[in-house]
Amino acid sequence: MGESETATVGVVNGAPALGGFSKEKLLELLKQMLLYRRFEESAEEAYAIGKIGGFCHLHIGQEAAAAGCILPLRQDDYIIGSYREHTQALAKGLSPEAVMAELYGKASGTSGGVGGSMHIFGVDVGFMGGNGIVGAQAPLALGMAWAIHYRGSDQVCVCFLGDAAVNQGAFHESMNMAAIWNLPVIYVVENNAYGMGTKFSRMSDTEMVKKAAAHGVPATVVDGQDVMATYAHFDALIERVRGGAGAQFVDVECYRFKGHSMSDPVSGTYRSKEEVDDRTENADPIKLLRDRMFAAELLTGEELKVIDKEVRATVAAAVDFAEAAPEPEVDTLYENVYSEINPHGRLFFDGRGK
Amino acid sequence: MAAITYRDALNQALAEEMERDENVFLLGEEVAEYDGAYKVSKGLLERFGDKRVKDTPISELGFAGLGIGAAMVGLRPVVEFMTFNFSFLALDQVINTASKMLSMSGGQIGIPMVFRGPSGAALQLGAQHSQACETWYLHAPGIKVVTPSTPADAKGLLKAAIRDNDPVAFMEGELLYNVKGEVPDDADFVIPLGVADLKREGGDVSIITHGPMVHVALQAAAHLAKDGIEADVLDLRSLRPLDVDAILATVAKTNRAIYLEEGWPYLGVGAQIVSIIMEEAFDDLDAPVLRVTQADVPLPYNKKLEIWAKPGAARAVEACKKVLYV
Amino acid sequence: MEALSPTMEEGQVVKWLRSEGDGVSHGDVIAEIETDKATMELTARGDGVLRAILVPEGGTAPVGEVIALIGEPDEDISELQAAAVSAAAASRSGRGEGDETTAEGGVAAAVEGAAADDGAAAVNRAAGAKLADVATGSPAVSAAADEAIDGRVKASPVARRLAADSGVQLATVSGSGPAGRIVKRDVEAAIEAGPTAAPGRATPPMPAAPVLVPSGAEFEDIPLSQMRKTIARRLTQSIGPVPHFFLTIEVDMGRAMEARATINTMLEREGRKISLNDLIIRATAAALKRHPACNAHWLGDSIRRFNRVHIGVAVAVEDGLITPVIRDADLKGVAHIGAEIRELAGRAREKRLQPDEYTGATFSISNLGMFGIHEFTAVINPPEAGILAVGGVEQVPVVEAGEVVVRNRMKLTMSCDHRVIDGALGAAFLSTLKGMLEEPAAILV
Question: B92 to chain A: nearest residue by CA?
Answer without folding.
Answer: A136
